[in-house]
Amino acid sequence: MIGFGALFIAILxxxxxxxxxxxxLQRIIMGFVVLSNAANLVILVSSGISADAMPPLLHxxxxxxLADPLPHAFVLTAIVIGLGNAAFLxxxxxxxxxxxxxxxxxxxxxx
Amino acid sequence: MTNLVGLPVLIPLVTALxxxxxxxxxxxxxxxxxxxxxxxxxVVGLLAYLAAWRGEILTLSMGGWAPRVGxxxxxxxxxxxxxxxxxxxxxxxxxxxxxxxKPPRESPFFLVLHQVMVAAVEGCFLTGDLFNLFxxxxxxxxxxxxxxxxxxxxxxxxxxxxxxxxNFVGGLLFLAGVGIIxxxxxxxxxxxxxxxxxEGDLPPQFWGGIGLVVTVFALKTGLVPLxxxxxxxxxxxxxxxxxxxxxxxxKVGVYSLFRVVPLVFTEADAGFFSLLAGVSAVTMFxxxxxxxxxxxxxxxxxxxIISQVGYMTFGLxxxxxxxxxxxxxxxxxxxxxxxxxxxxxxxxxxxxxxxRLKGVGGMATTHPWAAAGFFVPALALAGMPPFSGFWGKLFxxxxxxxxxxxxxxxxxIVVSLLTLASMLKIWQSVYWGKPEGQRRxxxxxxxxxxAGVLGLAGLSVAIGLCVIPLMLCCERAAEQLLAVTPYVDAxxxxxxxxxxxxxxx
Lengths: 111, 505
Known about the structure:
The structure holds two protein chains of two kinds.
Chain A: H1 2-20, H2 25-46, H3 69-100
Chain B: H1 7-21, H2 26-53, E1 58-61, E2 72-75, H3 77-100, H4 110-126, H5 130-148, H6 154-185, H7 190-199, H8 204-221, H9 230-233, H10 239-264, H11 270-292, H12 297-318, H13 321-352, H14 363-366, H15 368-382, H16 388-402, H17 406-431, H18 447-465, H19 467-483, H20 485-492
Antiparallel strand pairs in B: 1-2
């Protein structure tokens, strides 16, 4: 399970790095969104939740069978923050496109 | 009594809400915000008296959860000194803001954003666990993103984009680091972590997580080689806010290093500390070189932030009571002086219409008070006696030479001279000579702006004069940091509770 998760994180991170190397604003934003998912996965995978762990909402189960709720809380917080940040970036990029007429970063081609 | 620890975050958040609701009555809104800020200053003053002067460590566990899994607020010497600085700079910026903002775009939401930023900065200083630190970092940065792109000038938006992206990526790395730390140790509470490290046998992945987190702090601090984003973006923000960014935001990174490094590393990690000392020396030097080549007031000042940050981390790298105390004293001095310089340079920018050095001249004859407000912190920054910077550099140099860091200490002294040179450059072209290019001289006489600038300049003089009591506070805080045990015991209780795997309530 951890091996598979780690592989997935590696793929997501490389994709996001590739996207962020671009000078195109939209691609950079996509890269950021992918990277934020990779970071969330890091938390989930490294907390070592096993595949058959029970949700910590159920009553009457022994503590050992429940999943640790704290990483979930971390990831929830991080998702909210990441969503807000992505929204802000998209608005910023659209303003840049409207004010300057180009969708590339400063110094990029076509700027 | 311990509820006091939560108030510095709560008060500015309430004020921010009120400022949002009272948008239709600008005068009432400003009055309420000002009152909130003054109350905040009183509260953190009391906190500093208890924690930094009497040496108590105040803790507050939210909802009574065990510190290992719950949210803990801690005020020790270091935290309480920093909260006072946050409130002082916040107040000066607030007083300055009505005159310093360029209408109409920058004004409407400034007060709200400013108060949220103050709350987040105070939260960073008071939180006792890494995940909360991440959250407050993000809140603080989000307000700064909005402020930096507030004017919506095309050039400003283009400068804002890289700033936002760099800080986002930094935040995500921080998050991943926190996740790894939690996954390998079972806690993100700093005191629990410190206890676990002392017990040993943590897996190597844990140190990978710590490495990520420390790197992100270095990014936020602007240490070489992670400083490139700072001097481009800070000057684009509205003038009052750039003083907040310059004075407080990078210093939150410095604070985090001061907070986390003693809890995690020990004197045995000599490699880390010599690396930090080397990085500090390069940071000091490259920052001041960058400043020499610039021709806009706020860009020069922004490069000096980088250069000055090197002094503070050098104090941390010395990792002795004297070195840490000197570094801490330097942080205190720097926050006051650097915010003052940005505000004073901002007056010249308002008068001249741009912050180019050639844009305005002869401010000293036409606006003597504004000139004085620049002159005092400029000399303090360069380290001229009797101002605050002289003492900071003196203590640092003594500690550095005593511990045999010859190269870094010598660099620090050479860099002071170069700092003086670039302050003189601003002084000569903007303040000295015949008045010219003053398009709107009346803007430079705004009483609020002058009060903010002169207040910070006066504080710099006061720090220079009251050096002994302040240094005593810094020494106490430094000893507290190095001893580690008082902090850990205050958070977790003297017995070793909070075993990993236990969900205790």
